[in-house]
Each structure stands twice: as C-alpha cells, then as structure tokens.
Design brief:
The chain is mainly α. 61% of the residues lie in helices and 0% in strands.
C-alpha cells in the first residue's frame, strides 16, 4: 500500500471501531499503530520466509527470462502478455503458499505469547481453546458497502491487473486461430507468451493489409497507448 492508501484504511478502521466497537474496552484511536519495521518482528519473519521459500526462485526466473530475451519488459505487447499470463499464475501460487503456511501445525512454544501447538487457521477459528480471545469487531456489511461506494466506486477496476479489452482479444485469438493454449505453469509460460506474441503479430499484419482498416486499432497500437499512459510519471 502507498502511504496515502494506508492512511485511508487507518481512518476507515478507526471510524468503524468507533461506530461498532465497545468504547469502554477499546480506544478507536489506538486501533492502528505505526511502528518501524524492525519493531514488527512477526511480519519481518514472515517476509523473510516468503522471500526464501518463494520469491528468490521467482525473481531468478524473471531475471533469466529478461537476460535470455524471452520477453522484453519495455515492449508494450510483451508487457501486457506478461501481466495476462503471469499475474494469475503468481496469485494462484501465492494463495497455495499462504494456505500451506496457515495450515501447518506449529511446535508447542511455552515461551511464546502467541498460541502454539496448532495451525494459524485452527487458533484463529477457535481462540478460546488456546487461552486467547476473539478480538475482531463485528461490522455491519451495509457500513462497509457504503464506504466502498463512496471512496472506491471503481473497486473492480482497481483490482483488475489486465485490461479487459486485452483479455477479450486474447480469448478471441485463441479461439479463432485454434491455438493450443495450455494450463499455464512455470514450465510453459514463456513458450505460451511467445505463441501469443506471434499470433498478435499475425493478426495485426492481416489487419493492416486491409486498407479499409484503421492502423491505430491494431493490438500493438492499443498496447503502445496504454503503455505510454502507465509509464508516464
């Protein structure tokens, strides 16, 4: 999150606690505290594990692909193809990593103030079984939706990583050209990117050959326009 986004979320959290929380027990102004990263050892430890078990290998793959010319991050079409293919793959992989992390049973640690001898999912759902308490504050859904509509009316667009027009065009090319489009994984993602890049070039060439077509309507032209908007400070 950017600093401004974090400030917004902090304000929403405090206001919702003030509206729905027990003010005799909870201070809304203390519901969110800013600390230096070195003071939040749990988060730092988690980030270290994520980097060691997941991110390092992924980053090495991306560097290798860039150096070997499998894709050009400065090319607008390659940029969109990367987002189209890699982001869902990364999200799926991260979801599995998080699920495994939250599901494995921790060792019993009598020195820890946190629940131990159980998985994070188990103690989260049953805090009373581990001498803990549920600190969540129930909030009415209508209040959350009201905030979303007021501050984030385009929430769906904010969460969309790949332009809808590009996704639709890729679906069209895959269908019309009868491309052998596999289930994407780390073993076939770059070859699939190359396949789609070639298909886009063929489509754009055929489009331009027709004098009645507008050259600015090619996939590459749209990609260049979007890339210019994204890369402009």
């Amino acid at each position: 999150l950017r600093a401004t986004d974090l400030d917004h979320h902090t304000g929403h959290q405090s206001n919702l606690m003030r509206q729905f929380g027990n003010l005799d027990e909870l201070d809304p102004d203390q519901s969110h505290q800013y600390t230096k990263s070195v003071h939040n050892q749990k988060i730092e430890c988690f980030w270290s594990q994520l980097m060691r078990h997941y991110n390092v290998e992924l980053i090495n793959q991306l560097y290798e692909a860039d150096e070997s010319g499998k894709y050009d991050p400065q090319d607008p079409v390659d940029y969109l193809l990367f987002v189209y293919l890699w982001v869902p793959l990364l999200q799926d992989s991260l979801d599995k990593w998080i699920h495994n992390y939250n599901s494995y049973k921790r060792r019993i640690d009598k020195k820890s103030m946190l629940p131990s001898g159980c998985s994070a999912n188990v103690c989260y759902k049953n805090p009373e079984d581990y001498d803990a308490e549920d600190g969540l504050v129930p909030v009415e859904l209508s209040a959350v939706l009201e905030l979303e509509n007021e501050f984030y009316p385009d929430a769906e667009d904010l969460l969309r990583t790949c332009p809808e027009w590009f996704r639709e065009m890729m679906d069209l090319l895959i269908t019309k050209m009868e491309l052998d489009f596999p289930k994407i994984d780390t073993q076939n993602d770059w070859s699939t990117l190359s396949l789609l890049r070639t298909s886009i070039n063929l489509y754009d060439s055929a489009w331009i050959e027709d004098p009645t077509n507008d050259p600015s309507e090619t996939i590459a032209a749209h990609a260049n326009l979007l890339y210019d908007l994204v890369s402009t400070p």
